Amino acid sequence: MTPRRRRRLARALQYALIAAVLLALALAADWGRIAESFLQLDIAADMFPDVWTAFGNTIVYTLLAFAFGMVAGIPIALMRVSEFGPYRWFATAYVEVFRGLPALLVLFLVGFGVPQAFPGLQYPGGVYGQVAIGLGLTSSAYIAESVRAGIQAVPRGQVEAARSLGMSHTRTMVTVVLPQALRIVVPPLTNELVMLTKDSSLVFVLGVTTATMELSKFARNELTSTANATPLLVGGLLYLLLTVPLSALARRLEHREDRR
């Protein structure tokens, strides 16, 4: 048997094995119970249009946290590669702390710990401001590391050429290196946006109201009131409506970057 035929036979056997496993699972499943627990169309219909408020809040929370993460993360990345030691030490500590702490704990500290330490403190935007800062702090640490990697991926010769033209280190980083680094790290930044979309489900720790609850909290409330898991399925599908296109965009950007 030729190598080509062996590959075809091996591929056919793999497909047959996968089909057999899927068939066995389909035959073993209790589809009646699944439909009763997850596929109650009347319950799903009752979630609309209220669920769109939670869906919109999820998008807003994600974008606010990502914006805060970018605004804080880029300076931290520049400090990480700075020639000034104290900047590097502070940035390293910042990244290690906020990458090491769970996002839920950071949200709790921002929402309850900081106001207790500073009585009378009011976040701009209320819950939205708390989410932007709480999730943004964690996000900024990951964004800083991605941007730092992008900065270090820029050819050293471009930095030397800019410095030879009389540019300062700061101007070289801001006008020559950083624009190229940001283009390089667009795919991981898109992945970070996907992670923030899912992390927005942690906002419940802040005690949101009906007007400010996000998708996951809304689905859990509906689960409690209906004693049925259909709301969780609807919530999951709406999350996929956000994350699948973003993931596809990240893959496309990665492939385009690889071709350069």
TrEMBL record:
Main location as per UniProt: membrane
GO biological process: amino acid transport
Ranges for domain ABC transmembrane type-1: 55-250
Protein origin, superkingdom: Bacteria
Molecular function GO terms recorded: transmembrane transporter activity
SUPFAM superfamilies linked: MetI-like (SSF161098)
Compartments (UniProt record): Cell membrane
Gene Ontology CC annotation, any one: ATP-binding cassette (ABC) transporter complex
Pfam families in alphabetical order: BPD_transp_1
Transmembrane segments: 52-78, 90-114, 231-250
Range of residues in the leader sequence: none
This protein's UniProt keywords: Amino-acid transport, Cell membrane, Membrane, Transmembrane, Transmembrane helix, Transport
Membrane topology, from the record: Multi-pass membrane protein
Recorded family membership: Belongs to the binding-protein-dependent transport system permease family. HisMQ subfamily.
Full protein name: Amino acid ABC transporter permease
